[in-house]
Design goal:
72 residues; alpha+beta; four-stranded mixed beta sheet; 1 helix; globular
Length: 72
């Protein structure tokens, strides 16, 4: 319980050319949230996902609803 809360800063992404994905490592289970270009398949990392709180923050920052696909 803190007196000073950090204000959530909304961010945007190109919804026409990019889709939100979680890139998962097969070796160590590390997960990184980011955006994949739908035309080239290039992945842009945004944040490391260490738990449910990190994933929820990613969703809120970029106003993402629905399922986020995983790539390996």
């Amino acid at each position: 319980m803190g007196l000073f809360k950090k204000k959530l800063q909304k961010k945007t992404y190109d919804k026409v050319n990019q889709k939100p994905v979680i890139k998962c490592s097969i070796c160590n289970g590390e997960q990184v949230a980011g955006f994949q270009n739908v035309h080239t398949g290039a992945f842009e990392e945004v944040t490391l996902i260490r738990g449910d709180a990190d994933l929820e923050l990613f969703r809120k920052q970029y106003d993402i609803t629905g399922e986020i696909s995983k790539i390996y």
